[in-house]
Amino acid sequence: MRRSIATVSMSGTLSQKLEAIAAARFDGIELFEADFINFNGSARDLRRQAEDLGLGIDLYQPFRDFEGMPDAQFKRSLERAERKFDVMEELGCPLVLVCSNTSPLSLNDPARSAAQLHELAERASRRNLRIGYEALAWGRWVNLYQQAWNIVDTANHPHLGVILDSFHTLSLKDDPSGIAQLPGDRIFFVQMADAPLMSLDVIQWARHHRNFPGQGKLDVETFFEQVLLSGYTGNLSLEIFNDVFRETPNRRTAVDAMRSLLYLESQVRQRLSHSAHNPAAPEAAAASRALQRLDLAMPPPAQDLQGYNFIEFAVDAPGAQALGQTLSALGFEHAGHHRSKAVDLYRQGEIQLVINAQPGSEASQRFEDQGPNVCAFGLSAADPVQAANRAAALLSARHHSPLGPQELQLPAIIAPGGAVVHFVHAGTTLAADFDPVPSRPGPPADAGLTHIDHMALALATDQLDTWTLFGKAILGLQAGESQELADPFGLIRNCALSNPSRALRLVMNASTSQRTRTARQVHTTGRSGGSVHHIALGTPDIFATVRRLRERGVKWVPISANYYDDLLARLDLDEALVRDMQAHHIVCDLSAQGRFLHAYTEPFADRFFFEVVQREDYDGYGAVNAAVRMAAQEQARPA
Ligand SMILES: O=C(O)c1ccc(O)c(O)c1
Ligand SMILES: [Mg+2]
After folding, report:
1. Does the pLDDT of residue 404 top 80, yes or no?
2. Which of 20, 69, 128, 327 could form a disulfide with 254 if both were Cys (CB 3.0 to 4.6 A apart)?
3. What is the pTM of this model?
4. Is residue 534 within a helix (H) or strand (E), and if so which, with residue range?
5. DSSP string, 211-235
6. Distance between CA atoms of 419 and 107, rounded to whole angstroms?
7. Has residue 639 got a pLDDT over 70?
8. Whose CA is nearest to atom 6 of ligand 1?
9. Does ligand 1 lie within 6 Å of residue 65's CB atom?
């Protein structure tokens, strides 16, 4: 299918947009009216620019409120249409989008609308142009695709077809399953948009909050599957009105856009091949024809990743010493010193943490840019090479690190913001690359921490959708509910990503205020737009772990006594247990089935901190306690 994107979906001047769109290997664009009106050149200039970049101008939307008008208004519109057709000929653009009328002057008269669109199509046909009619969710009389199709069917002109837009159908909770029954060759164009669920006026929702397929909560896969079952073979296009995308660097937006299409295609391809191989399915034949006709993207399948194998920190030499002390206090054993680099391995339970202070390395470059930060992490995969191949097929850059003698070569990619993601076999120990460090005399360090429960990121607001898509498409994660958390200096938007087995959990935080801790941290990371904000380590007995760590000098974020009084009032908890939690600065959340106990250490170098968690049949992250933590951290900060 031809892949295209509306120019309204990205930031920049029109020429800059075209370059970013072409660099992401799109075939064409939907030209947004204002982009052309404001373009510093003629229609022919624009056509040449697009052609030089290998882009077709596949769709243009030059008029509104066209059909179903009283005769006088319609006549004037028809004359104006000829002028726009002139422009389209110069642009080399074959298709006009006419969206359903929103004017109060328009008439509820489908026969009239059909006759008027017929007349427009007849005029278009004289220049070999085509008209596509789209039902806007807020059209005055027409807002469902079935209504638009009925009018197109009545008009019965070969140069008139329908345009489908997933947003309009799914935002109204209209059933997309009738789309498969439409004649595919009368669908002239398909626009795909996802969106978060919002209870907002539909126009505001549509014009400010759409996002790419996979970034929102609409069932775009079912919609697109229906489109393909109809026999449609035209464009797969993105029309994304989004306030944040208008300011996001357009190269990143364009790559996200293409990634979203490749992901959508591959997901729907799987559905179709499932149907095609099930002769009992009524859509088996249509699914099989669609697969034969179309060359849908087919990356290696997503895997259920098995969690974090290691996390690597970038620091300088003094930082390595300080972080080493912090990890030792947290009960980690200094398990090895790298054979050829200033890199150290710390271990506890199955947790592996790496401190990288190698001068001249990529880690040191990241340290120079950001201060101490997580520069890499390893994820356990049943097939690490395929995991990296899937990522590359979905447009992640591969990462090749210079290898020392006999070092492990791990397939790796670059995550948004620049951290390196390595894929490793579950249970891989990094020890092979490290010389053992003689263990210290005295009792063993272990404090009962067994595994990495989750990692939380502090992200710039324009990185949230990018990370959501990366997590879903490349890491096989699903997005939870988006929540707002109150920091003393503003709101934090929070959303968790996790895989079906829950072995891999990643939490995203973005600050809508400039003044929160999250925002301050994001600023230190400059253009990378965020980094790891905290790491949650699991223990089967948080009371014992906190006690041991306290003896070793670990400082805990002190939680207000009022919090514990409120817990007693709010939850059905034993008073002695709550007072014990209070004595250990442990906070708590209950779910229907389970319980989450957690405690926070003080931040390292004002960057990231460690959280200790005991998870018992509980699927969340204790978000209700984030506000008490953020307030406590502010009150614990040196004045
Ligand atoms: O918001 C609008 O006006 C608008 C215009 C054209 C479209 O294709 C659309 O989906 C929305
Ligand atoms: Mg549309």
Report:
1. no
2. 20
3. 0.97
4. strand 530-538
5. B-TTSSSS-HHHHHHHHHHTT--S-
6. 57
7. no
8. 99
9. no
Give 104's DSSP letter.
T
Q: Where are the alpha helices (DSSP H) in 92-219?
A: 110-125, 145-155, 166-171, 202-208
Tell me the two tokens of residue 459.
């992200």
578-594: average pLDDT: 96
Phi, psi angle pair for 455, to nearest 5°: -120, 140
Work out whether strand 343-348 and strand 351-356 pair parallel, antiparallel, or are unpaired.
antiparallel
User: Residue range 31-36: average pLDDT?
Assistant: 96
462 touches ligand 1 (CB under 6 Å)? no
Distance of CA 39 to the CA centre of its chain: 31
Mapped to the 3 state alphabet, what secondary structure does 562-606 carry?
HHHHHHHHHCCCCHHHHHHHHHHCCEEEECCCCEEEEEEECCECC
Provide the 10 A C-beta neighbour count for residue 403: 12
Give the H/E segment covering residue 345. Answer: strand 343-348
Q: Which of 99, 167, 208 best tests ligand 1's pocket when mutated (most atoms within 8 Å of CB)?
A: 99
Q: 528 falls in which pLDDT band (50, 70, 90)?
A: confident
CB 4 within 8 A of CB 238: yes
Annotated binding site for a divalent metal cation: 134, 165, 191, 239
Instruction: State the residue for tokens 């004289």.
Output: 126
Please tell me the number of the ligand nearest to residue 101's CA.
1
**At 242, which amino acid appears?**
N
Query: Strands 451-459 and 351-356, how do they pair?
Result: unpaired
Please indicate whether residue 465, judged by its CB atom, sits closer than 6 Å to ligand 1: no
**Protein residues near ligand 2, an ion, with CB under 5 A:** 165, 191, 239
Q: Ligand 1 pocket, 398 CB below 6 A?
A: no
Type of residue numbered 432: A
Count of CB atoms situated within 10 Å of the CB of 108 = 10
Instruction: Return d(Cα 333, Cα 331) in angstroms, integer.
Output: 7
Known binding-site positions for Mg(2+): 454, 534, 611
Say yes or no to pLDDT of 345 above 70: yes
Percent of the chain with pLDDT over 70: 99
Q: What H or E segment, with its residue span, contains residue 275?
A: helix 250-276
C-alpha separations of 159 from 65, 99, 117, 162 in Å: 19, 16, 10, 10
Average pLDDT across the chain, whole number = 96
For residue range 464-520, list pLDDT tens digits in order: 999 999 999 999 999 999 999 999 999 999 999 999 999 999 999 999 899 998 998
- Please tell me what DSSP assigns to residue 185: G
Q: Rounded to an integer, what distance in angstroms lies between the CA atom of residue 49 and that of residue 57?
A: 10
CA of 115 to the centre of ligand 2 (A): 23
Judged on CB neighbours under 10 Å (0-12, 13-18, 19+), 293 is middle
